[in-house]
Amino acid sequence: MGAQIHFLPEGPVVTNSHNQPVSVLTITLEDEYWLHQEQAAPDQDIATWLQQYPEAWAEMGGLGLAKHRPALFVELKPGTDPGRVRQYPMPLEAKKGIAPHIRRLLDQGVLRPCHSPWNTPLLPVRKPNSGEYRPVQDLREINKRVVDIHPTVPNPYTFLSTLNPKHQWYTVLDLKDAFFSLPLAPQSQKLFAFEWNDPDRGISGQLTWTRLPQGFKNSPTLFDEALHEDLGEYRCKHPEITLLQYVDDLLIAAETQEACIQGTKGLLQALGNLGYRASAKKAQICKPEVTYLGYLLKEGQRWLTDARKQTVLQIPRPQSTRQVREFLGSAGFCRLWILGFAELAKPLYQATPGQQPFRWTDEAESAFQQIKTALLSAPALGLPDITKPFHLYVDENKGVAKAVITQNLGPWRRPVAYLSKKLDPVAAGWPPCLRMIAATALMVQDADKLVMGQELRVVTPHAIEGVLKQPPNRWMSNAQLTHYQGLLLNPLRITFLPPTTLNPASLLPNPDLDAPLHDCTEILAQVHGVREDLQDRPLPDADLIWFTDGSSFMHQGQRYAGAAVTSETEVIWVEPLPPGTSAQKAELIALTQALTLGVGKKLTVYTDSRYAFATAHIHGAIYRERGLLTAEGKEIKNKQEILALLTDLWRPEKLAIVHCPGHQKLTTPTAQGNFLAHQTARKVAKAPSQLLALQLPDPGPQDLPYFPDYSEQDLQWIDKLPLKQIQNGWWTDTNDQTILPEKLGQQVLEHIHRTTHLGAWRMIDLIRRSKLKFRHTAETASNIVTSCKVCQLNNAYPQSQAATGTRLRGTRPGIYWEVDFTEIKPGKYGYQYLLVFVDTFSGWTEAFPTKKETAQVVAKKILEDILPRYGFPVQIGSDNGPAFVAKPCRKFIKKSGPS
Question: Which residues form the RNase H type-1 domain (predicted)?
Answer without folding.
Answer: 540-686
